[in-house]
Every structure is written in structure tokens, then in C-alpha cells.
Amino acid sequence: LQCHGPSGLGAAGDDGRVGGVVNSEFYQSDDPAQQALAEEWAHFRIVYGVPPEPISNDEIRMPAFGTELNVEEINELVYM
Q1: How far apart are the C-alpha atoms of 80 and 16, rounded to whole Å?
Q2: How many CB atoms lie within 10 A of CB 9?
Q3: To the nearest 10°, the Cα dihedral for 58, 64, 67, 70?
Q4: Cβ distance 1 to 10 under 8 Å?
Q5: How many CB atoms lie within 10 A of CB 33?
Q6: What is the three-class DSSP state of 68?
Q7: Alpha helix (H) ranges present in 1-80?
Q8: 6-75-27 Cα angle (round to 5)
Q9: Which residues, other chains included, contact 12 with Cβ-Cβ below 8 Å and sequence gap of 6+?
Q10: Tens of pLDDT along 15-74?
């Protein structure tokens, strides 16, 4: 919520968030195969985050939460 915002628009919204857009067609497909791919992608990003680029030290990247959250919490975030 802090990074992606209540609407899931992240930095694309107008409320100063820094996260990427998670409220998109990619994450909300009616196609079961596409939905499974989106869930797998979200799970991976929550667990491992997005590593910083070696060239840019000031860029904000998603941290890894794999050691801070348990499996149930991660699954709940993916579902949300």
C-alpha cells in the first residue's frame, strides 16, 4: 500500500507513490493461463524484489520480502 497505493497505480498515479502499476490488465485477466502467470510473477517479485541496477544508486527498487513474510502472507498479497 505504501508504494503502490490504494488504487494500485503506484508512480503512475497522482499521489506521490513510488511503486509500479499493479492495477492493470496483466494482473486481472479472465484467461486462466494469463492469471496463473500474473500470480506467479507477483509471487516472485514479493519474495525476491527487484534488485537495484548497478549504475543507479538513487533509484528506488522493490525490496525482497521473502524473509519477512510467511507463505500465507505472501499468498494473501498475491490474491489481493
Answers
A1: 21
A2: 18
A3: 140
A4: no
A5: 8
A6: coil
A7: 32-48, 71-79
A8: 55
A9: 21
A10: 888 888 888 888 888 999 999 999 999 999 999 998 877 766 666 788 999 999 999 999
Amino acid at 8: G
The structure's pTM equals: 0.80
51 within 8 A of 63, measured Cβ to Cβ:
no
30 neighbors 66 (Cβ within 8 angstroms): no
How far is 21 from 16, CA to CA, in rounded Å? 13
CB 74 within 8 A of CB 39: no
Q: What is the dihedral of CA 35, 37, 41, 47, to 10 degrees?
A: 90
73 φ, ψ to 5°? -65, -40
The pLDDT score that the predictor gives to residue 57 is 62
